[in-house]
Amino acid sequence: MQLCRFYEPVQGARLGLRIASRVYDLTASGQPQFATLTALLQASDSTTIGPLLQQVDLSPLPSYDYAEMDRPPDPAVPHLLPPVDRQEVWAAGVTYAWSREARVREAKAKEVYVRVYEAERPELFFKSLAEKAVGPHQWIGLRGDSHWNVPEPELALVLNPRMQIVGYTIGNDVSSRDIEGENPLYLPQAKIYRHSCALGPVITLADEVGEQPLVIRLTIYRGGEPAFQGETSTAKMHRRQSELVNYLARYNDFPYGAVLLTGTGIVPGDDFTLRDGDEVLIEIEKIGVLRNPVRQM
Hints:
- By secondary structure, the protein is an alpha+beta fold.
- The chain folds into two domains: about 1-80; about 90-295, Fumarylacetoacetase-like, C-terminal domain (Fumarylacetoacetate hydrolase, domain 2, Alpha-Beta Complex).
- Helix content is about 20%, strand content about 35%.
- The chain has helices at about 35-45, 50-55, 65-70, 95-105, 110-120, 175-180, 185-190, 240-250; strands spanning about 1-10, 10-20, 20-25, 65, 80, 90-95, 125-130, 140, 150, 155-160, 165-175, 175, 195-205, 215-220, 225-235, 260, 280-285, 290-295.
- The strands form three sheets. Strands 1, 2, 3, 4, 5, 6, 7, 10, 11, 13 and 16 form an eleven-stranded mixed sheet that branches. It has a five-stranded mixed sheet with strand order 8-18-17-14-15, with no helix packed on it.
C-alpha cells in the first residue's frame, strides 16, 4: 500500500491510498485522521500506519486509476500532488562517498566536505516549505545566475511529529554546484529557491520497506534521448537513517511531521549541466518513478 495526495477538480486536495492500480479517496471516508496527510501523521503514534488504514472501509469510497492520475497537472482532471501539505522539507548532505568526492572537486574549500563526511555530526540543512515543493510532472527550475545545475536523486524519509519514520518517497534536491562550490556559505542560494525541490509520486509505508537497501536510478532525457544515466544503492549510504533523524530532531519541533532527504549517491560528471527542456526521471524500487521537466528561470 502507498499513500498519495491528489487533486480532484471539485473538492481540491485529497489524501489517497494506492492499492495496485487504484487510488481510493481516504478523505471521503469522513474520518478526521484521513482529512489530510498532516492529520494522518499526527494520528500515528508508531512507525506503522497500517492499523489506522485498516479502520476504513474502502468499498464505498471514490477510486481512480493511478496511471491516469500520474500525468501533468490539469485543473480539469484528477492528478497527483506532491506528498506534503504542511511538512518542512530538510536534507542531509555528503552521506555517500561519491557525493563527497564530487564536492571536493567542485569546492574551493575542499576540506569542509571531507571533514563533514567523517564527522560524528552530519550535515543537515533546510530545503523547502511544503507549499514550495513541486510534485510529479511539475517543472524544476534552473537559476539564471548559475551555469552548473544538476538533479540530486535521493531517498526521502517521511516522519511523523514524534520523528518516527512512517514512510518513504522520492526527492530531487536540485542544486547549483557552481554557487555552492564557490563558498560553502552560499549553500542556501545553491539549494533553496523556487522549483528546486521535487517530491513524489507516492509514499510507501515504512513497514513495507524498512532499512533494506534500495536501488536508485537517475535518467536525464534531452531531445527524447538519454543524456545521462546513473545508478546507486542506499546500501552505499555512509550514515544510518535513524542517525540522520536523531540529529534533525535535536532541539527542534515538527508538529506537522517532516520530510528528510538522505543525500545523493549519483552525481553527473563535472562537464554536465541541466538544460531547459530536459526531463529528469528518478526511480527508487518499491516507491516508483518521479518525473519532472526542466525549465530555465
